[in-house]
Hints:
Blueprint: H1 2-12, E1 19-22, E2 40-42, E3 56-58, E4 62-65, E5 75-82, E6 90-93, E7 96-100, E8 111-117, E9 129-130, E10 136-141, E11 163-165, H2 167-175
Antiparallel strand pairs: 1-10, 2-3, 4-5, 4-9, 5-8, 6-7, 7-8, 10-11
Amino acid sequence: MRRVWNTIATDLAGKAGLVAVPVWAFDSAPYPSGEREREALVTFDDDTGFDDDSAFIQGSINVEMATYAPLGATVITVRLINAAAAAGIRFSYQDALYQTGRVLAQPSETTFQVPVFPAIRQAIPAGAQLECDAPTCLCHLSDDRGMDLPLNNTEIDVASVEFVEAVDYWNDLALGVA
Length: 178
C-alpha cells in the first residue's frame, strides 16, 4: 500500500502534477428517475466488450452541448437527452468542472439556455457529451509535500490529500502555452 502511495506521489511531482479528481455531484445530478441511479455495465452495440471481454461503465444521465460554447462563455445551451433538469447541475468536460444556474430560455422542448460558472475554460463543440454522472475537476496537490507520510514502522490507518483546482492550467491553455 505504501509503495503504491509513494508511486502516485512521485508521479504527481508535488504541485506540478495534474490529476482528475472525482467531484461529489450525487446531490444535484439530474437523474432521469429523480433519484440516485447507479452506473450500468454495458457492451458495444454488437454485444462485445473490451479486448478482455469486460464491459464498460455507462452513466444514466445523458446531457450534451446543444450549441458551440466558445472559450469564456458564461451562458451555454444544453440538450437533455436523458436527464431530469438543466438548472443547478454540476458537469465536467475534459476535466473542467462547471455548474449551471437557473434556466434563462428554453429554445425547444429538450434544449435549455443556462448561465455557467466558471466561464468556459476551453471551447466545447456542439454535440459534446457532458459528464453529469461522475464529473471530475483537474487539480494539483495543494502543497509539494501534500502526500508525505510519517516515516515510521507503524501501519497507516488514514492518510489524507488536499487538492486545489488547476486554474493555472486552464489559463495557460487559453493563452496557447499549454
